[in-house]
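S2.1 Query sequence (TVP38/TMEM64 family membrane protein)
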Amino acid sequence: MAARPRQGSADAEGSGLQAHGHPGKAARAPSRVAGRPGLRRFWPLALLLAAILLIFALGLHRQLSLAALAEYRRALAELVAARPVAAALLYVGTYAGAIALAVPAGPVLTMAGGLLFGLWLGTALAAAAATTGACLLFLAVRSALAPVVARHAGRLVETLRPGLERDGGWYLLSLRLLPIVPYWLGTIAPALVGMRLLPFATGTALGILPGTAVFASLGAGLDDIFAHGETPDLSAVLSPSVLLPLTGLAVLSLLTTWWRRRRREG
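Output structure tokens follow.
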């Protein structure tokens, strides 16, 4: 009779060993299932890094220049004339992809839009593409890139945090108007601060519109320059006559934001 409890105890110990000391399939399954959602969060990071590596490995980033635009302008113009809708979609997709991958080619691509599609349509397509690309990067940062981005750009983001948390989209609109604020910084900072997508998209679209129109206008005049065999340097294009009006708009927007806040607090 005394042996039975020992046998039950041994069985219990054996069961405990199978469950804890030597996990079986049932014990391992929850850890695998629980780990999958965490891994899924990092697919935007893996996709982004792979795309960036591919772009630089193939040298595609060197094709986003005024020199390349001068070289291929006739072929691009023929494509626009033959298939305008497909060309517009290709342009928007290329521009949005470059912005989402943080490739610094916004001014060149905007000028290309003005050259290929004219001032008004070029401005509209470039603004739509830049906003779409910014939204894609914004969502990628919020979903998986936040720890990496915060570690490398945390100080810059913290300088913008008070204004973004206090004034939201109005402050972002002012940042988009300022030529000295990098486009990528105006995208990742709101994502890390926790801004919602709709205010971000609205502030971005409205904020980039004046600058987009200016660069599209410059692009619309490139054909005459290219026809004389000249290729302007981008640094010459970014002259005070272009940057100062945009800076003035940004200052006006900041003053408007400050006045609205004073009225709200008063």
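The first helix runs from residue 3 to 21. The CA atoms of residues 126 and 210 lie 12 Å apart.
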